[in-house]
Amino acid sequence: MAEYTVPDSGPLELDGGLEALRSDCARMAPHWVVPATALPAPVPPSLIHAISVPPASVQLIAGMSEYGD
User: How far apart are the C-alpha atoms of 56 and 60, rounded to whole Å?
Assistant: First the structure.
């Protein structure tokens, strides 16, 4: 199997810079159109049953300063 190496030439410079990137995105935008669909109706709380959260996830969130400690 061949090995590929990339010489370290400093910070990566995009060809054409930000303006070229913006024009590329503008050209691609029509390809990214999402068809309009009706939004699903909200689920009433009375129909939500058996929600469980793994203890590891609870500990992770509890340890975040924004949510817990």
Answer: 6
The Cα 27–Cα 21 span in angstroms is 10
Q: Considering only CA atoms, which of 10, 26, 8 is closest in space to residue 18?
A: 26
Residues 6+ apart with CB under 8 A from 38: none
End-to-end CA distance of the chain, in Å? 50
Distance CA 58, CA 54 (A): 7
| Single-letter residue type at 34 | V
Q: Can you give the pTM of this predicted structure?
A: 0.29
For 17-61, write each residue's pLDDT tens digit.
788 888 888 888 887 777 788 888 899 988 888 888 899 988 888
DSSP 11: S
